[in-house]
């Protein structure tokens, strides 16, 4: 019996990822973050803020996931985590501009996002070849055969471990009430996600767009540049204040 490709295995881990995200959100907002750092204290119309983030995530995930699938010869709807975070950021930044909100409002979601990826990627891993998130062939000792006789990079696990490390670092820095991390924790998480995902994309069998780069490389690069720009802008604001 193989654990790869079992019916509903991805859905099981999606639920586990959601539970992990909600648990971490409760712990971070109740035990680690100061009340003034929470979005509810700084954002008008928090319901509209949540809707904007959710709709942006859904649209971004489906657009980039489907585009990458079509480019790679897969005639099916796709769903992409990196596309989802890019879409959510774009929608929230648009909402903030309309509502006149300045500064970061995502600190409460940094650790939950890291937890979501750390747990959810195991669902991609156990879904095997059907999920189209597997890596390229590899001769490394930890390479995994997903059922077709070819040992591949378990890129899903690489990403899970990278984001689990970020989750642990976030909790440690929040517990220490580190001002830099309290101010930039969301951007640091987004930047790290984009950076580590950029690296793993070289180990995936997706269609190339330019040279060795696939579509997700450019989305990841956009996330890294966004995070760096926002951290720089925040640092300048603190210096001139």
Number of strands: 4
Report helical residue fraction.
55-70%
Task: List the total number of helices.
Answer: 7
Major beta sheet, strand line-up: 1-2
> Rg from C-alpha positions?
18 Å
Through-space gap between termini: 63 Å
Mass-distribution shape: globular
Residue ranges: pLDDT <50 for 5 or more in a row?
Answer: none
Mean pLDDT: 92
Largest sheet: 2 strands, antiparallel
| Helical/strand content category | mainly alpha
SSE string, helices as H and strands as E: HHHHEEHHEEH
Structural domains: how many: 1
Residue share in β-strands: under 5%
Outline the structure in words.
The protein is mainly α and 241 residues long. It has one domain (9-240). It has seven helices and four strands, in the order ααααββααββα. The protein has a two-stranded antiparallel sheet. Strands 3-4 form a two-stranded antiparallel sheet. α4 packs parallel to α6. The longest helix has 26 residues, at 46-71. The chain is globular and about 55 Å long.
């Amino acid at each position: 019996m193989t654990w790869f490709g079992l019916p509903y295995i991805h859905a099981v881990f999606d639920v586990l990822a959601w539970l992990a995200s909600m648990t971490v959100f409760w712990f971070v907002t109740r035990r680690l973050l100061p009340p003034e750092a929470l979005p509810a204290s700084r954002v008008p119309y928090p319901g509209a803020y949540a809707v904007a983030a959710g709709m942006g995530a859904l649209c971004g995930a489906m657009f980039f996931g489907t585009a990458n699938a079509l480019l790679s010869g897969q005639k099916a709807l796709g769903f992409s985590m990196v596309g989802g975070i890019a879409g959510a950021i774009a929608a929230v930044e648009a909402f903030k501009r309309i509502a006149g909100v300045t500064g970061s409002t995502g600190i409460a979601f940094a650790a939950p996002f890291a937890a979501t990826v750390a747990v959810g990627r195991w669902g991609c891993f156990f879904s095997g070849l059907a999920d189209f998130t597997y890596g390229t062939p590899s001769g490394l000792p930890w390479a995994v055969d997903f059922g077709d006789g070819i040992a591949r990079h378990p890129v899903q696990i690489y990403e899970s471990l990278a984001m689990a490390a970020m989750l642990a670092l976030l909790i440690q820095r929040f517990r220490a009430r580190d001002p830099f991390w309290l101010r930039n924790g969301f951007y640091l998480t987004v930047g790290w996600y984009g950076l580590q995902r950029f690296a793993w994309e070289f180990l995936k069998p997706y269609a190339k767009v330019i040279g060795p780069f696939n579509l997700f490389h450019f989305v990841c690069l956009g996330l890294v540049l966004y995070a760096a720009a926002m951290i720089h802008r925040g640092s300048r604001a603190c210096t001139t204040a």
